[in-house]
Amino acid sequence: MRGVTGAGLRAGMSVSAIDPALFRSTMGHFPTGVSVMSTRDGEGRPYGITVSSFASLSLDPPLVQWSLGCNAFSYPLFSKARHFAVSILADDQEEVSRRFCASEDRFAGVMHEEGLFGLPLLDGALAWIECELVNEFPGGDHAIFIGEVLRLRHWQKEPLLHWQGKYHRLSAQGSHNFADCGLRAGSSQ
Ligand SMILES: Cc1cc2nc3c(=O)[nH]c(=O)nc-3n(C[C@H](O)[C@H](O)[C@H](O)COP(=O)(O)O)c2cc1C
């Protein structure tokens, strides 16, 4: 197969022969932002999870998408929830990102506001997007959630980035000239 480096895909090999570690590290070369997706469970308790799969999907109607592992504790919560919120993390929120994939009570001591339907919106984020869950599709071992945007706000802040398993920030020089900017490595995940 032309143009494939490292993947080791040869004629007769099935797609499932792709090495999971290689898949993970290759996809890790794609830089992303970091967001906390949040909702409330049936008893009204807030719940949140750090994701990098969040993306814009459609302008008309305004739709966003993200994916969640089907084995995640929070999968049934987000699947049943009628609404979810996105807090896009700013570059000084690495600790928030770590917190929302840890096992402790994730909202304990975390300043947040209540949005539509009581959705938790994290203070200090660079954007909040409040959504109605309109669709869920299977995506291998993940589920793809589609949300219709009901309300959004953003602030002039720099984003927290995730690239090659580590957190990064945009350089102080700005991001328009690649030669001048680069990525400033933070600590590892
Ligand atoms: C930077 C980063 C990005 C992540 N992106 C995703 C993602 O897009 N989808 C996902 O299911 N898990 C993602 N995770 C892992 C989840 O945050 C983690 O498995 C989750 O918090 C487990 O929570 P739960 O089992 O309580 O639902 C990511 C973790 C980090 C640190």
Provide a descriptive summary of the structure in words.
Helices cover 13% and strands 41% of the residues. With 189 residues, it is mainly beta. It has a domain at 31-155: Pnp Oxidase, Chain A. The chain is globular. Mean pLDDT is 87; it is low at 1-6 and 173-189. Flavin mononucleotide binds at residues 34, 49-53, 67-69, 72-74, 97, 101, 162, 189.
Key phrases:
189 residues, mainly beta, Pnp Oxidase, Chain A, 7-stranded antiparallel sheet, 4-stranded antiparallel sheet, 4 helices, globular, disordered N terminus, disordered C terminus, binds flavin mononucleotide
Total number of β-strand segments? 13
Q: Assembly type of the shown chains?
A: single chain
CATH architectural group of the domain at 31-155: Roll
Biggest sheet: strand arrangement:
3-2-6-9-10-5-4
The backbone outline, from C-alpha atoms, is globular
Which molecules are bound besides the chains? Answer: flavin mononucleotide
> In CATH's first tier, which class of the domain at 31-155 applies?
Mainly Beta
Query: CATH topology of the domain at 31-155, which one?
Result: Pnp Oxidase, Chain A
- Structural class call reads mainly beta
Integer average pLDDT: 87
Biggest pleated-sheet summary: 7 strands, antiparallel
The share of residues in helices is 10-25%
**Span between termini:** 34 Å
What is the helix tally? 4
The percent range for strand residues is 35-45%
Radius of gyration: 18 Å
A few lines on this structure:
This protein is mainly beta. The chain has helices spanning 20-27, 75-80, 94-99, 178-181; strands spanning 32-33, 35-40, 46-51, 55-58, 63-69, 83-88, 112-114, 120-122, 127-139, 142-154, 160-163, 166-170, 183-188.
